Amino acid sequence: QVFDWVHSVDRLRLVPLLGRARSAADAPLQVLIQVNIDREASKSGCAVEEIDLLADAIAQQSGLQLRGLMAIPAPHPDVSRRRASFAAMRERFERLRARFASLDTLSMGMSDDFEIALAEGATLVRIGSALFGPRLRRD
Fold first, then answer.
1. Cα(first)–Cα(last) distance of the chain, in Å?
2. Cα distance between residue 18 and residue 58, in whole Å
3. Are the beta carbons of 110 and 118 closer than 8 angstroms?
């Protein structure tokens, strides 16, 4: 009830829970599907093969509005490998947008690679460390 967006739907079991939590009187919750584009064990996100299944489930929930995809590709030192991940996300986004006209958000890229992400079609980037400096580690 206090959120307008969720950027991290990565499991089918979350979809009905979010749908039930949204009151019919409220505007639909805006949803991004989180994709683990590089299949990193340390990151959350669905596999590319699960995108369509999640999208269909979200579309069936009246309290949810599918808006797009989100991914944080692996921070490869080789820029061409990062670009390939961003390009793969853009391609998946375009495929999904052909099915769902409401898609307008491709969230990918962070402070260290936002230029590449924008060149590959990102509409939303996370640039916290560029603005606020590196995160402090708590050990």
1. 34
2. 9
3. no
Query: Which residue has tokens 């991004």?
Result: 32
The pLDDT confidence band at residue 70, using thresholds 50, 70 and 90, is: very high
* Tokens at 122, concatenated: 């990102």
DSSP letter, residue 128: H
Strands across the sheet containing 5-9: 5-9, 29-34, 64-71, 105-110, 124-126
Closest alpha carbon to 69 in 124, 126, 127: 124
d(CA 73, CA 117): 10
What pTM did the predictor assign?
0.86
| Residue 42's pLDDT band (cuts 50, 70, 90) | confident
Look at residue 40 and give its three-state secondary structure.
Answer: coil
Q: Which two tokens stand for residue 31?
A: 């949803």
H/E element, 82? helix 79-99
Is residue 82 a contact partner of residue 119, using CB atoms and an 8 Å limit?
Answer: no
Report how far residue 32's alpha carbon sits from residue 34's, in angstroms, rounded to the nearest whole number.
Answer: 6
